[in-house]
Each structure stands twice: as C-alpha cells, then as structure tokens.
Inverse folding.
C-alpha cells in the first residue's frame, strides 16, 4: 500500500458524526481512500442498501467514484469478532490499515449494563481487532471518538489529558469515561489518537442535522411559547460545536502522526463557549417568545418538579420526564481547555465560530424540517 492511500474500517457510520466522517473521507483528494463501513444487521434492509442511502450527502456532492470506494460490512461492535462472516473478517485483517471508531450509544436513559455493552465492551472488541492488525504489521492509526463530558459533574477548567474518576450525570458519560480509560491502556502500545467533541449541533452554514437531541430538545419546547420557568443556572456553561467544525478539525489533526498518543478537545473551549442565558436569549429572539424565568436547579427539584408531576399527566408528564435527562446540562460548570488542538487548528485557519453567528441557520433548518419530521425545502 502506497503512502498516499488508506483502507479504513469505520464504525458508527449511521450516526450523525459517523456519516459526516464518511463523506469527508470520500472527498479527500490527497489520499486515495477506501472505506469499509460496519453496519448492524437489519431484517428490513440489507447493509448495502443502508449504505446506499448514506451516499446521499446533505453537505454537498460526493465524488463520482464514492460508492465504488465504499463497502458495507454486516456486523456489530458488540460481537467480539465484529462480523460473523469469517471470510469477510479475514479480508478486513488483510486490507485495513486505519480504524475510525465512532460507534456508541448516546442515549442517556440506558441502564449502566446496556450502555457498557455498547460503549465499553464494543470498544474493547474494536481495539482487539486493531491488535490483530498491528500483529500483522498493518495498523497505521486508530482514531477514537470519546466525549468532552467524560468529566461528568466536575466543574472548572478541564485539560485535554484529564481523566480522573468523578460523579456522572448519566450512563452515557459514565461508560464513555470507562471506554476512554480502556483506550488509554491500549494507547501505550498502539498508534491511537483520542478526540473529545462537546455538544455537536448542525452544520454552521446549512443548519443540517439528523440528531435533534440535547440542545435541540429544550429549544423545541421553548419555541412553543409555553415555557414559564427553566431549571437552569444563568451562568451555566454550554459548549456547543457545529458538525462542520468538528469534522474539519478532526480531518486536519488526524492527517499528522504528531496526533498519535494525544487527546484533543474538539470543543468551543473558554474562548468560544456560551452561557445558558445567551442561548435562551437567542432562542427567544428567533422564535419571538417571552424569555422564561431561570430558577436554580436545586430549587426546581425540591419544589417545582413535584408540583409539575402533580398537575401533568399523559404526554406532558412523558415530555417532562424526557426533559429531565438534559437538565444537568443547564447547570454545567466545566470549561474544556483546547491548548493542544487550538494552536494547530489556528495555523490552518480553522477557528471555532460563535454560536450567535450560526444559531439562526441551525434553527431555520429545524423549522423547515419540522424538527426532523420532513425534508427541508
């Protein structure tokens, strides 16, 4: 294999981040890239058909030969062999020289056991596959997507190499922390780079997203104009990054062998982070609704929450319960240091855009698609 070609095994391709990574890989002009996409078995649709749908890129056209350089592999990271087809597995071991591991459950309401099966044991299986590649002298690099929220409830400035044990807001944070600890163990002997994005939102230019969770949920509720109070810390830190920034930063950093053995925050950081108050004001201005009152979360949980559960039934109670999954992020006080990533990105002219500059774009996309229910105009 020449130095200007690579054969990638990509996990998590059906996710919002994974599909963007795929599109960017196929658009690269400096490297001839072939991608094997690991896709879970689906009784309704075969893996090749699922991959065909992903070939319709929402952020611009793909090269004419994109589909020919992209191959579907039926498998699952929860399978210790990744794929049940022994011949396909052997083919991967004989061809792949790079792994990009994006697959994870991002649900906050999974039990710890469920989340561990996917986020920890799934990652272990991919790492062991990488070990086999390395034993054959094939592995060039392994790129692992973690999350900045492995810090859990820890406040203050968090450095890019910080990974101490802490308390967590949900099983997603907990198991991603456990998975990153596992990756660090393998990083001592393998060419691994770790990337920690924060809250990823839509494209800063087009607004496109396929994931309407986390930040989108409270903004959707806010758009109704019925929100009177919000359980939030007025100075709570919200670190938001658009998908095009995350992918652009990842592409640049992962081009260099200097990134191996390192961990990077793909976050807004202290320079570009927002506050809950700023986002509420932007949302109220966009939707033309009155700004709700913010009350400390501890008061909300002690007084307001029991009252709302007493008067809300059916869909409203279900909506309230779902919203509670995101409440901890309305009082978050961690700030993500970007000392390792920022200088490298700045040299290439990649800077984190201000939320106020692209907020209208991402909200317009939400309105145009009815929050993901229909195709945009």
């Amino acid at each position: 294999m020449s130095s200007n070609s690579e054969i990638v095994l990509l996990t998590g391709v059906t996710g919002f981040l994974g599909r963007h990574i795929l599109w960017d890989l196929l658009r690269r002009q400096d490297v001839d890239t072939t991608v094997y996409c690991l896709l879970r078995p689906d009784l309704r649709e075969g893996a090749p058909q699922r991959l065909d749908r992903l070939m319709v890129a929402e952020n611009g056209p793909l090269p004419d030969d994109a589909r020919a350089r992209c191959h579907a592999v039926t498998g699952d990271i929860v399978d210790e062999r990744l794929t049940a087809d022994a011949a396909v597995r052997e083919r991967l071991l004989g061809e792949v020289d790079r792994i990009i591991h994006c697959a994870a459950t991002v649900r906050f309401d999974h039990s710890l056991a469920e989340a561990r099966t996917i986020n920890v044991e799934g990652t272990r299986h991919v790492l062991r596959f990488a070990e086999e590649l390395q034993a054959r002298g094939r592995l060039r690099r392994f790129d692992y997507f973690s999350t900045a929220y492995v810090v859990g409830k820890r406040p203050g400035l968090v450095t890019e190499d910080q990974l101490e044990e802490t308390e967590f807001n949900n099983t997603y944070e907990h198991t991603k922390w456990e998975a990153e600890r596992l990756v660090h163990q393998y990083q001592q002997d393998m060419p691994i780079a770790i990337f920690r994005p924060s809250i990823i939102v839509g494209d800063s230019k087009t607004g496109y997203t396929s994931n309407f969770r986390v930040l989108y949920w409270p903004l959707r509720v806010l758009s109704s104009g019925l929100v009177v109070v919000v359980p939030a810390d007025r100075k709570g830190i919200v670190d938001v990054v658009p998908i095009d920034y995350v992918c652009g930063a990842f592409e640049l950093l992962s081009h260099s062998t200097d990134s191996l053995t390192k961990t990077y925050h793909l976050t807004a950081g202290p320079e570009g982070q927002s506050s809950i108050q700023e986002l509420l004001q932007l949302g109220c201005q966009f939707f033309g609704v009155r700004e709700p009152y913010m009350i400390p979360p501890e008061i909300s949980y002690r007084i307001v929450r029991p009252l709302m559960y007493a008067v809300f039934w059916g869909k409203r109670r279900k909506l309230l319960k779902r919203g509670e999954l995101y409440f901890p992020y309305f009082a978050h006080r961690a700030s993500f240091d970007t000392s390792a990533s920022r200088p490298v990105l700045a040299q290439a002219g990649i800077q984190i855009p201000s939320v106020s500059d692209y907020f209208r774009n991402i909200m317009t996309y939400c309105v145009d698609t009815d929050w993901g229910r229909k195709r945009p105009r």
User: Anything to note?
Assistant: The radius of gyration is 21 Å. The longest helix spans residues 112-135. The longest strand covers residues 32-39. The chain is about 40% helix and 15% strand.
